[in-house]
Write a structure and sequence with these properties.
This protein is of the alpha/beta class. It folds into 2 domains: 6-226, Alpha-Beta Complex (Spore Coat Polysaccharide Biosynthesis Protein SpsA, Chain A), CATH 3.90.550; 232-423, 3 Solenoid (UDP N-Acetylglucosamine Acyltransferase, domain 1). Strand 4, helix 2 and strand 5 (74-77) form a beta-alpha-beta unit. The radius of gyration is 31 Å and the shape is elongated. The N and C termini lie far apart (102 Å). The structure holds uridine-diphosphate-N-acetylglucosamine (UD1) and magnesium ion. Uridine-diphosphate-N-acetylglucosamine is lined by residues 11-14, 54, 78, 81-84, 86-87, 106-108, 143-144, 156, 158, 172-175, 201-203, 228.
Length: 457
């Protein structure tokens, strides 16, 4: 499509009441990102490719999400919900700028791909004025039906307005539409609302184009790609499709997924080469896993970078801001947050590391806790290279353990430890020889006396 400019308009003024949620429909997540951001990611970008989003009144949250995903997005407000053509005309100012191609997508169809939107622009370049995205619906109920004649699209009939014969048609309107930017406004301004719903239907652009002797055509795709989300069940179905795509893409890239159907990925998960992911792993937004790393079962990671050949889990919880260096090891029941754990360092068991930096090759014993919070503020813990923290130590931040230092097991460390020193905090230990044996004998005697008494009663 070289050389052709485009305007993509995303219609996101829908209320989504069937989601039964206080969150606007288009902000619900699929694979860790909002429905809207998936749609925006598919829209053409780069020189000459503009973007507009139509939101409902008082939907600053939707506008902000659109701008966060695409800072170049122009936001328009549809004040009354009078139909898809009416929504599109809310962006009249952008349409009037005269782009070659106008692409209209719905904010609640997150599975639409960039490739399909490009494919829809081809007929425009070859003389079509309107291009609809069609699909064969397993159950066409509720969809607009595509009325075709050879390779020409004659009309789109909304379900509510269709005759019994038209309702038998299974080729349906996926909702995405591409229009020749030179004629789009003229077509849209002719759309009326004399139909079953009393709405201004965007698909009526097809009938109007035909009446003017302009060509309308259809590009076909799969039902999956145009799934619209109106309910939580449909949200879950879209999630399943998206997860399958992400897992396939990861495996295609060389990631080993032992049980792909149990691994949850995010749209932005990044993998290096020879990464291995065991069953039942959840990778939330912002996770990057470098070459050769292994993520063991039941690990949950968000906004985390896992370095080359690092090993994580089983049962690890990596919270935002975790950065693991090359060959670092995070073992079972370890939680990390805002923690940089350098190359070769090991945190193998039952530990919390938060707001901390652990130097290369340090070893953190089982049950170590960085006490980072005093009820008001978070404080930093610094652990030097090669340090050794004994099991069950509490490191009360802010505190620094010097490089190569040792902390004895069970210590509560409240002051900095110099490099190569030993810090140990332990109560004096006493031994009472034979005490346990005497104790047992006393208890056994008492038990026998009690039994004898109750028998004598
Ligand atoms: C629409 C199509 C139908 C197609 C189906 C595919 C029309 C009239 N019908 O029907 O042919 O088969 O999608 O899923 O276009 N919106 C607004 N403002 C409005 C109305 C809608 O922003 O005033 C937005 C909605 O938020 C939604 C999209 O437009 O994202 C589609 O609206 P919806 O009411 O879901 O249309 P359908 O009845 O599903
Ligand atoms: Mg719909």
């Amino acid at each position: 499509m070289s050389g052709r400019s485009s305007l993509t308009v995303v219609l996101a003024a829908g209320e989504g009441t069937r989601m039964r949620s206080s969150l606007p429909k288009v902000l619900h997540p699929v694979a860790g990102q909002s429905l809207l951001s998936h749609v925006l990611a598919a829209a053409p970008r780069g020189a000459g490719q503009a973007l507009a989003v139509v939101v409902g009144p008082d939907r600053d949250d939707v506008a902000a999400a659109a701008r966060a995903a695409r800072p170049d997005a122009a936001i328009f407000i549809q004040r009354e919900r009078l139909g898809t053509a009416h929504a599109l005309l809310a962006a009249r100012e952008a349409l009037a700028k005269g782009y070659d191609d106008l692409i209209v997508v719905f904010g609640d169809t997150p599975l639409i791909s960039a490739a399909t939107l490009q494919r829809m622009r081809e007929p425009l370049a070859n003389g079509s004025a309107v291009v609809a995205l069609g699909f064969q619906a397993a159950d066409p109920t509720g969809y607009g039906r595509l009325l075709t004649d050879g390779d020409r699209l004659k009309a789109i009939r909304e379900h509510a307005d269709a005759s019994a014969a038209e309702r038998a048609i299974t080729l349906c309107n996926g909702g995405v539409m591409a229009l020749d930017g030179k004629v789009a406004l003229a077509l849209l301004d002719k759309i009326g609302n004399a139909n079953a719903k009393g709405e201004y239907y965007l698909p009526d652009a097809v009938t109007i184009a035909n009446a003017q002797g302009l060509k309308a055509s259809v590009i076909e795709t799969t039902e999956d790609e145009v799934r619209g989300i109106n309910t939580k069940t449909q949200l879950a179905e879209a999630e399943a499709v998206m997860q399958r795509r992400l897992r396939d893409a990861a495996m295609e890239q060389g990631v080993t997924l032992i049980a792909p159907e149990t691994v949850y990925l995010s749209a932005d998960t990044k993998f290096g080469k020879d990464v291995m992911i065991e069953p039942f792993v959840v990778l939330g937004a912002g996770v990057e896993i470098e070459d050769g790393a292994v993520v063991h079962s039941f690990t949950h990671a968000v906004q985390t970078k896992i370095g080359r050949n690092a090993s994580v889990g089983p049962y690890a919880r990596l919270r935002p801001g975790t950065v693991l260096g090359e060959g670092a090891k995070i073992g079972n029941f370890v939680e990390t947050k805002a923690a940089a754990i350098d190359a070769g360092a090991k945190v193998s068991h039952l530990t919390y590391i938060g707001d901390a930096h652990i130097g290369a090759n340090a070893n953190i014993g089982a049950g170590t806790i960085t006490c980072n919070y005093d009820g008001f503020d978070k404080h930093h813990t610094e652990i030097g290279e090669g340090a050794f923290v004994g099991s069950n130590s509490a490191l009360v931040a802010p505190v620094t353990i010097g490089a190569g230092a040792y902390v004895g097991s069970g210590s509560v460390v409240t002051q900095d430890v110099p490099a190569d020193a030993l810090r140990v905090e332990r109560a004096e230990q006493t031994t009472k020889d034979g005490w346990a044996k005497r104790f047992r004998e006393m208890k056994l005697r008492a038990k026998a006396d009690k039994a004898a008494k109750s028998k004598g009663k």
